[in-house]
Amino acid sequence: MASTKGLEGITATESTISSIIDDKLTYVGYDIDDLANHSSFEEVVYLLWNQKLPTENELNSFKSELISNMDIPGEVIDHLKSYDLSTVHPMAAVRTAVSMLGLFDSEADEMEEEANKRKAVRLQAKIATIVTAFSRIRKGQEPVSPKKDLSFAANFLYMLNDKEPENVEIEAMNKALVLHADHELNASTFTARVCVATLSDVYSGVTAAIGALKGPLHGGANERVMQMLTEIDSVDNAVPAIEKKLENKEKIMGMGHRVYKNGDPRAKHLKEMSRELTELTGHSKYYEMSIKIEEYIKENKGLPANVDFYSASVYHSLGIDHDLFTPIFAVSRVSGWLAHILEQYADNRLIRPRAEYVGPKGQKYTPIEER
Ligand SMILES: CC(=O)SCCNC(=O)CCNC(=O)[C@H](O)C(C)(C)COP(=O)(O)OP(=O)(O)OC[C@H]1O[C@@H](n2cnc3c(N)ncnc32)[C@H](O)[C@@H]1OP(=O)(O)O
Ligand SMILES: O=C([O-])CC(=O)C(=O)O
């Protein structure tokens, strides 16, 4: 029984949520380019959970349902205020706070489909509040409640900054949320599915997924891209700095992908957003450095930029703290996790692969006093 390291190329489930075929990404059969250019994040969430685009009425009521569920229990706010936020990574705080939400949800362990759908709405709405409340509390500010007339993307920025965002900021945030919403059987989504396939609850599945997204080989890469750009600091230093990193066998964050070998279809949208937003905000050097790095890595390693590469300079241009980049990924990706969790419950079987044993065999137990 030979093993496949990292499960590369293994098809572990059937799904009707998203597909990656020949480097093309679709959500429920809709091309990501169309969705990125035309849809709202709320519409995409509705699509992922209901497998159809909403009518105008359905979308309006879904939007208000999300906003009316954005408040979080006072105990979660008190908890966020109870520890030294300057030493805690926001992904750890979000992971804990999301788990805590389950303690205040009387339906947490209800397994009926409708109850799970209601929990999906609550989680999608409340995770945005957790991330923004965390950010405000650590700056000594009070959390801000959402506004009923703002979209999900606009409310996220509003709750973060206590200031209504400009249209260009709302459009960028909306597009980023759409682009990050789902991605087939990526590591965090697989984690969520493995967790709930034991018939554990939705909160456990999402908490586990947040833990997986946090790692630098997955969602945690976007924060590290910005760290790398900040360290490199100038366009002239981009190539020499990357050469040095490769000499030291370091991985270049935001580059490479398990599935895409010729290019991540989301990256071109984020690249264009990065060009526009960095120019608008006087941060063009980050875009120009990114271009040099992308070209160098493509030429010398044959690796494409992934979704995390240009999202870094996009979020930086929106004035967002660098350690909030991965939590923002979670605010979007929770929609995909929830879609996959619902799909897993609908036709469940325990996920339990095998390991090829390569350790010692036939060992004789010796009592402790003889070792
Ligand atoms: C939202 C997302 O999760 S997108 C991915 C975000 N992660 C990153 O950006 C981190 C940087 N990238 C990587 O670590 C990898 O490309 C991954 C994790 C995305 C994919 O990993 P895998 O499919 O397992 O590829 P693996 O790590 O085995 O790499 C294959 C080869 O390419 C090299 N390689 C892959 N990515 C990189 C990189 N970013 N920088 C330098 N070399 C790389 C590896 O060193 C390896 O080379 P070798 O065969 O000479 O040893
Ligand atoms: O699919 C993957 O392996 C990682 C990825 O791009 C994502 O989760 O968006």
Automatic annotation (TrEMBL):
Gene3D superfamilies: Citrate Synthase, domain 1, Cytochrome P450-Terp, domain 2. Keywords: Acyltransferase, Transferase, Tricarboxylic acid cycle. GO terms for molecular function: citrate synthase activity. InterPro entries: 2-MeCitrate/Citrate_synth_II, Citrate_synth-like_lrg_a-sub, Citrate_synth-like_sm_a-sub, Citrate_synthase, Citrate_synthase_bac-typ, Citrate_synthase_sf. It comes from the Bacteria. It catalyses: oxaloacetate + acetyl-CoA + H2O = citrate + CoA + H(+). Pfam families: Citrate_synt (PF00285). Pathway: Carbohydrate metabolism; tricarboxylic acid cycle. Belongs to the citrate synthase family. This is Citrate synthase.
